[in-house]
Amino acid sequence: MGGWGTGPTIFIESIRNALIFNSTIPSSDEPTARSPASTQLLFGYSPSDLIVPSIVLLVCAALAYFVYRRSQEASSSSASSKKSKKTSRKANESLLNEASIVNQMSVVGIDFGNLNTVVAVARNRGIDVITNEVSNRSTPSLVSFGEKQRYLGESAKTQEISNFKSTVAGLKRLIGRSFEDPDVLALEQKFVNCKLVEGERGDVAAHVTYQNESRTFSMTQVAAMFFGQVKDFTSKEIKTQCTDVVLSCPGWFSDRQRRAMLDAAEISGLNVLRIMNDLTASALGYGITKTDLPDQSLDEKVKPRTVVFVDMGNSSYQVSVVQFVKGKLTVKSTAYDRNLGGRDFDEVIVDHYVTEFNKKYKMDIRANPKALFRLRQGVEKVKKILSANSVTMLNIECLLDDKDVSAEVHRAEFLEWIKPLMARLKGPLDQAMADAGISTADVDFVELVGGSTRLAAVKEFLGEYFQGPKGENKISTTLNLDEAVARGCALQCAMISPVFKVREFTVQDWNHYPISLSWDAALVPATKTGEAGVSHMEAFGIGNAIPSNKGLTLTRKLPEAELAENNGHVKFEVEAKYDAAAKTRGLPHVPQDWIGKFTITGIKKLSGDPNAAGDGIAKATIKVKARLDANNLIVVDGAQQIEEVLVAEEPEKKDDAAMETDDKPKEVSAAQLAASGGGPPTKMKRVTRKHDLRIVVLTAGASRELVKEWHALEGEMNATDRLVIDTAEKRNQLEEYVYYAREKLDMAWSDFITDADRTTFSSELNEMEDWLYGDGEDATKSVFVEKLSALKKKGDPVAARYLQADERPRAEKLFREFANNVLINLSAEDDRYSHIAPADLEKVKKETNDKLKWLNDSISKVNDQPKHVNPVVTVEQINLERDSLMYFVNPILNKPKPAPKVEEKPAEEAAAETDNLGNTKEAATEEGKKEEQNMDVD
Ligand SMILES: Nc1ncnc2c1ncn2[C@@H]1O[C@H](COP(=O)(O)OP(=O)(O)OP(=O)(O)O)[C@@H](O)[C@H]1O
Ligand SMILES: [Mg+2]
Fold first, then answer.
1. What is the mean pLDDT of residues 763-783?
2. 484-496 and 278-288 are packed helices; what angle lies between their axes, rounded to 10 degrees?
3. Which of 62, 395, 695, 894 sits a CA distance of 20 to 30 A from 660?
4. Which of 715, 869, 727, 704 is nearest to 788 (CA)?
5. Closest ligand relative to 313 C-alpha
6. What residues are in contact with ligand 1 under a 6 Å CB criterion?
7. Does one domain contain both 233 and 370?
8. 644 and 611 fall within a common domain
């Protein structure tokens, strides 16, 4: 994480996240691990070089960007001198504009919500939440499958009732969930209108009707469809392709769920730079905007600021205790109730009115899923109103059997009904406090996130829970509770992006589920004779910092028979699993608690390995590098076989040898010497050699082949959607033209077409209208295009004649004005053209009169023509003739007058005529001449 500071610096102007991207590129001796080439490329310029054309800079920055993308997974490094930072900032100030163009490449944060998805982007030196295609700041997380196309986001919302069984909700809840998870049918199905079934790989899938066929799509695919829509409207809004994003997810998401999100993003064409826990994103947005955080560089003992973040959205309840010091946030604990959110509060009201309406109106709402859904919608509105009012009405028209229902709902009774839910708020808070090792007295502020924290009861409860000794309310409202997560993600994206310079801020997250690594005990030598070898170890326990690295040293037996069977090479499988304790911390069902398998291959018997001499069975020492990465995913990305050999020390080559070894040279005994082959008594040293091993990774994510297949299918469906949309557009154009032409034929165009043609054209338009609503309903795009062009072939000449007649008077007027002006000027009785040869003036006069005659003749011919015939002279020809007259006349008439002859005067007299500004009268005359020359005859 330390390396993040090498990215952009954001200086906070105000609490609303107005950020100034002060500097864009790190200094040359402060390389960013993610973009080493960008550093070199852009810092090849000295300050004086900064006048280099902006295009060069853009190319460099773009190159840097691509290099960064390739090195995205590289680890960060940040150590550098303060002096060099200063120099780099200075040098970069002038690069701001160029860099900010590159910045628009795509720095996007997505809060993928169960109900609503919010998108924020870094731009205009700040973070903006963007609006979707219908100008809403949040987009329903829905996908609907229609007869011809899919409807995504907002358009899916409008289909939700009419296309009830093929509209999929709960994408976030169901992505990466196994169908055998008991929650799926018992809890989630009731909030999703389509049927949930088991898909490939045992995942949850949606069963829908698409293009009149029964289809099953995995939730990863459905989420990918939705992400595609988010990508489209974001790209339109930022006017560049949206690719790089930071995505949020609840902190309780398992490895399997996170990987499914990554797969979905990949299918949709998004490149996820990081998956960030909802509350960590909110905490980042909070911390980076605070300029008054305790500064431990000034006083090591200063107490960090402790803030508890509480998120209650539509489906879950999350608590996170975070401590802030200047430049860093550390998550100290997290706790969740992953099945407590706004929808559960709706459900208690639903339960009540299902019973009440059954009694009152004799209707079985539960037997009718559509009616139940509409009741849920009505109830949600009621719940929101009760957050600010003590009483409201629940009214639903034609709920069932054409019966309207209504009821008066009081906040007091609502509070009574939700008591069991309210009782569940305390548990996660207590757990978070205990895990962080603090009491509520240590909490400085409580920040709320998520729509359901608007519930008055929830706010009140939290206020009381954290109440200070003097009754102070610690609830603070610094964050925008609907947008904090998306903003935090966009900030994180800006921090990772190499083209932004963001204020240095380190984020250290907290591991919620303990993870172990395990292997086959039979392959590992026993520590004591008769005991089994160790088969597992806790690699990342509860509270382990995220990200973090672990190095493991394992010993594997190398039985001769196994070596012989496998060409002298054997493998060693290490599996990552959740520990049993993860279940008690709310881990969603994960088959066999399995996370991944890492098969280390190419292990062989090494001749110099001292283990070979032990109990007769050779042993290999393997070092494995495991990581809990910033996405909260286990990565095993390095394994080496260690070989220890004794070599004779060569003092003169000591430095070289040291470079290849880990251990300091050791003196060895004569016995050891003898064991190593004997020889003359000389100083020996133990040398460690490392041999890289291959790792084959198997995770809970979809296989590469499956992701590719889904990606291709998504491309096809997307192309179909586009074709359907384009076809509808062409159909609309044809329909519009039919109405437009019919109206024009009756009015403006009526004189410009013969009566007979008008009658035929009108009836053709009528026939086309009938066809559009009949056989043409399902016509293809090309048929609509053909039909429109056939109609236009008839209509366009009429429209053109009408336009000619409409514009001709103006063209004629301009022509006459110019010609008449010329003639008037020529006949003026002054000396304005005295300097022009009379023959030239005569030519001008003749040309003007000739052109005027042409105009008169043409106009009179046109006037003699019937209007339904194409005019003999067009407006364009009239304008051309006027232009040609101007080109002839102007050069002659605008010829400058020669300067009047000035009599030579004695020097004193000339000096006396100098005005008090120092200008001579002659100079003034020159000015006058210039002005004259500039006059045009027009
Ligand atoms: N004024 C209000 N009073 C009570 N509840 C509200 C109010 N406004 C919104 N909500 C509830 O907030 C929930 C939506 O919040 P939000 O948009 O944060 O959820 P989400 O992010 O989509 O869901 P999740 O975080 O669970 O994935 C809904 O259940 C909605 O009824
Ligand atoms: Mg949310």
1. 94
2. 70
3. 695
4. 727
5. 1
6. 113-116, 172, 313-316, 341-343, 380, 383-384, 387, 450-452, 454-455
7. no
8. yes
